[in-house]
Amino acid sequence: MASTPPGPRGEPLFGDARRYANDPFAFVTALEQSYRGIAAFDMGPMETYMVTDPTAIERVLVSEADRFRKPDFQDDALGDLLGDGLLLSEGETWREQRRLASPAFAMDRLSGMAGRITEHADDMVADWSDGDHVDVEAEMTRVTLDVILDLMMGVRVDDATVETIREQMVPLGRRFEPDPLRFAMPEWVPAPDDAEYDRAVATLDGVLDDVLSARRGTEGTEDDGPMDFLSVLRRAQDRGEQSSEQLRDELMTMLLAGHDTTALTLTYTMYLLSEHPEAAARVRAEVEDVVGDDDAGMGHVREFEFVEWVIQEAMRLYPPVFTMFRAPTERVELCGYEVPEDVAIMLPQYAVHRSERYWESPETFDPERFSPSRSEERPRFAYFPFGGGPRHCIGKHLAMLEAQLILARVVRDYDLVYEGDGLELLPSLTAHPKDGMPMRVVER
């Protein structure tokens, strides 16, 4: 067994951090094309192994998940933001929090929420008129925030509050854009944008305080109480199973992670349909055939086929979470190489989803590649927008339900025409369009 995988030769101090920070999407794609399944490089002082072989990814995320953990470097600024919530917690804390959260995401509960999701989509398009120019990323952020606050926290907030939350995404996102100086410097060294980041976190903490105040005394009992995420955790707090700090961390994680990826999935879906009018016409025809003049609901979602494929293809080409990290808790073997304990393992969805090894014409928008006949021979972890294994995204079923219902509502009455100068991605915790998503509303 070889000791170290091959990889690019970086520069002193920064390693390959400058190249990665300049364009992480191009960097991971080039490494995937140049090396078979695994490559080693330095992210500043941090030794990193990028793994793109689906069999090895399955081992890291599923079959040997207990041998890997979240790496320590994700506990600094991200820890200040999300604390010990589901996204970052480990061990028994994570297992207990996952157990508590699961009923809020059960399919029988979500099935009954479909009508409320469609209501929020109705509210969004009620402000649209033929010829309007809108930033679709901002529109999808607002509607998905409305949904997560309603379905998971049991509150409906005013437009000003939703806009306050949305505005904080800018300084939060900026803090996590790849920066070679941050890779090279100790965490305790202050950076120019730290104060702006801290203010954004404080503002969101204030919003959550208001949500908790509005819901105080409404969580009910185990026998008859509501099953939204906040109510479940408040009842656990009453039983002494949840501290105030833990409750805050879970609500912050839910607020941010619960809307961002769905908003981006819808944003890129709308963009791709604008660029591919034949696919847009097919989506519209399926919605008209399945939904007709009704409001889209869970029964209709079960009948959708091409609508679902389009959303899956959008997440293939533009996975909102474009890379994820793990660290071995012991020395392991991956792809024939020895991987030391605590080295950073990068699992880049963006590169794997666009690999010629697993996808025919990977740069082409082709929703039918998700048809059963074309999917069955593909390695399972050639596609993993929601991660996988015990730590897969707990909200993936909600995200797919939400995306299909909102898409169905939009295409029923509107076409959206992209008006930008070409899509460029902005890397942060998630992949955002650099200049938003300017589109023109065309009423049908």
Describe the protein's architecture and organization.
- The protein has about 450 residues and is an alpha+beta fold.
- The protein has 19 helices and twelve strands.
- It has helices spanning about 15-20, 25-35, 55-65, 75-80, 90-100, 105-110, 115-125, 135-155, 160-175, 180-185, 195-215, 230-240, 245-275, 275-290, 300-305, 305-315, 350-355, 370-375, 395-415, and strands at about 40-45, 45-50, 70, 135, 325-330, 330-335, 335-340, 345, 415-420, 425, 430-435, 440-444.
- The strands form four sheets. Strands 1-2-8-5-3 form a five-stranded mixed beta sheet.
- Strand 10 and strand 11 (about 430-435) form a beta hairpin.
- Helix 7 runs antiparallel to helix 8, helix 7 (about 115-125) packs across helix 19 (about 395-415) and helix 13 crosses helix 16.
- The mean pLDDT is about 90.
